[in-house]
Amino acid sequence: MIENMINFIKEKLELKNPKTAIILGSGLGGLVDVLENTKKIPYNKIEGFPQSTVKGHKGELIRGFINNKEVLCLNGRFHLYEGHDPKVIADVIHVLKELGIKRLIVTNAAGSLNLETKPGSIMLISDHINFSGKNPLVGPNDEKYGPRFPSMNNAYTLSLRQKCKDIAKELGIELKEGVYLMVLGPNFETSAEIKAFQILGADAVGMSTVPEVISASHCSMEVLGFSVITNYGAGLIDNTPSHKETLEEAKKASEKLIKLVTEFVKQGG
Ligand code: HPA
Q1: Can you tell me the distance from the alpha carbon of 71 to that of 257, in angstroms, rounded to the nearest whole number?
Q2: Ligand 1, atom nearest to 246 Cα
């Protein structure tokens, strides 16, 4: 089944040999516009591929080029709150692995857990806290991809983070680094939860990314992760986070992120 899917994707997207894949979060689909010479397939045309159900998530697999570097883009991701089995996310990562992807760039929209990290800023993810209670590696382990008990040390590859910080400096983009905490969702947090997550050492909170990173790290991919801060966590100021605000702020801040990711790929990232 997976072999058929791989062949189908390679043929439809006319893939040469992409090494980098980018997963686009809520409101961050604008990156697709900077890709050159694109080929696209909607997820629903790929037999066996999971389907995304969230507004603002298109659900397309895209092949494109940034400065002649071939990249694969997942415009629309799979959230556990949609009801997907966590294993579905590992399946998607395994498809990327089989397509030859070595490096995964993940992006998301997230709420800030401290007043200094304002909506509109970009956070480079240094590490995560899996507070979702779910894990994509549950179930029989396929040794072909990685060990039963993988280490998550350096899951967000240090050398890539360093390179990205250098590029941000060159471009004059302020880039904070911090810990992302994943909740299952779909509700936004209570203010008591936000206080608890601050104490746990998290800087941003969201409902995605961690399963992809666990699975990618398990199968030895390098990972670079970004959160676009779209709102303050509930109760941090007098606010009520909403999906509308998330999409609007993500769109605004995404310009900076697009510049950063584009330059990163251009410089060989
Ligand atoms: N909480 C959880 N997920 C989010 C938030 C938030 O405040 N903002 C964007 N995604």
Answers
A1: 16
A2: 9
The yes-or-no answer on residue 68 being catalytic is no
Asked if the bond preceding 119 is cis, omega within 30° of 0, the reply is no
Question: Tens digit of pLDDT for each residue in 131-189?
Answer: 999 999 999 999 999 999 999 999 999 999 999 999 999 999 999 999 999 999 999 99
Beta-carbon contacts of 80 under 8 Å, excluding residues fewer than 6 positions away, are: 86, 89, 132, 134, 184, 185, 207, 211
Percentage of the chain exceeding pLDDT 70: 96
Tell me, yes or no, if 152 is annotated catalytic: no
Residue 41, pLDDT > 60, answer yes
The residue from 21, 43, 79, 216 that is catalytic is 79
Distance 60 CA to ligand 1 centre (A): 23
